[in-house]
UniProtKB/TrEMBL annotation:
<dbReference type="GO" id="GO:0052793">
    <property type="term" value="F:pectin acetylesterase activity"/>
</dbReference>
<keyword id="KW-0964">Secreted</keyword>
<dbReference type="GO" id="GO:0071555">
    <property type="term" value="P:cell wall organization"/>
</dbReference>
<comment type="similarity">
    <text>Belongs to the pectinacetylesterase family.</text>
</comment>
<keyword id="KW-0961">Cell wall biogenesis/degradation</keyword>
<dbReference type="GO" id="GO:0009505">
    <property type="term" value="C:plant-type cell wall"/>
</dbReference>
<comment type="function">
    <text>Hydrolyzes acetyl esters in homogalacturonan regions of pectin. In type I primary cell wall, galacturonic acid residues of pectin can be acetylated at the O-2 and O-3 positions. Decreasing the degree of acetylation of pectin gels in vitro alters their physical properties.</text>
</comment>
<dbReference type="InterPro" id="IPR029058">
    <property type="entry name" value="AB_hydrolase_fold"/>
</dbReference>
<keyword id="KW-0378">Hydrolase</keyword>
<dbReference type="Pfam" id="PF03283">
    <property type="entry name" value="PAE"/>
</dbReference>
<dbReference type="InterPro" id="IPR004963">
    <property type="entry name" value="PAE/NOTUM"/>
</dbReference>
<protein>
    <recommendedName>
        <fullName>Pectin acetylesterase</fullName>
        <ecNumber>3.1.1.-</ecNumber>
    </recommendedName>
</protein>
<keyword id="KW-0134">Cell wall</keyword>
Amino acid sequence: HADFYNWNRVKIRYCDSASFAGDAFDKGTGLYFRGQRIWEEAIRHLLSIGMASADRALLTGCSAGGLAAILHCDQFGAFFAGRSTTVKCLADAGLFLDAVDVSGGRSLRSYYGDIVAMQGVAPHLPPTCTDHLDATSCFFPQNIIDNIKTPIFLLNAAYDVWQIEESLAPSKADPSRAWRACKFNRSACNASQINFLQDFREQMVASVRGFSGSKSNGLFINSCFAHCQSELPATWNGTPTIQNKRIAKSVGDWYFGRAEVKAIDCPYPCDNTCRNII
C-alpha cells in the first residue's frame, strides 16, 4: 500500500502462547519462559541498529501477536520517549474476549489462567488493570485497552473464527458435537447458534465503546468469519471493506491523521465484501 510500501519491516517470531509477556521457569516441565526478556532485548537491538532515528514506528501483530501488540503498546512507546518519532500500534485479531462458551463455562479464561500462572505473566501486565483485577482478567484486552496511552488501532472480525472454534465451541465444551458442523461452516448453523454468535458480536462491540471514545485510537470491526486480515494482500488492500473503505486505507488514514477511523460493520449477513474462512 502506498502509505507503507517503503518501510523497513521486522518480524519477531515466538511460540510460547504468552504474547512475549512471560518470565519464569517451570519445574514440572523444565522449561524456561523468557518472552518478556526476548521482547525487550529485541527492541533494544533494533533501536541500536537504526530504529532510534526512525521518523515513524508501528508495532503490529496478528492473533497472539495482536494480543502482544496490545500488551506491549505502551512499553513500545516508552522506548521512544524523548524522541520525535511518531509511535503507534496495530492489533489484528488480538481482541480475545473473556466469553462464555456453549457449555456455560469459560474455556479461554481457563486456558489463559494456566498460561499466566505457568509463565509468570502477572508482573508484566498493565498496573492500571492489576491494581483492581486479577492477572488472568488483565490478560484479556477488553480490560486493558481503555487505558493504553499510545495510539492503537484494533482490527478484528466480529465473528473471529479462532475464537468460535477454540473459545466458544471447543470440543471439551461440546461433547455432543452439536456445534461441530456450525463452527467450521457458518451455513450449517441453526437459528439458535446464529443468535449465540450474534451475542458474541455484541460483546465485542460493547468491549470497544470506551476505547473508541479516544480520538487517537482507530477501529475496524467487520462482520466476517475470519482471523487475521492484515497479513494477506487480498484482505489488507482488497476486500473486505466497511463503507467502501479497505483495511489498508483505513489504517493509513488513521496512522497519518488524515481521518478519524471508527468503523463497525452491521451484523452478519449484511456484508457481501467478506473473505470468509468458514
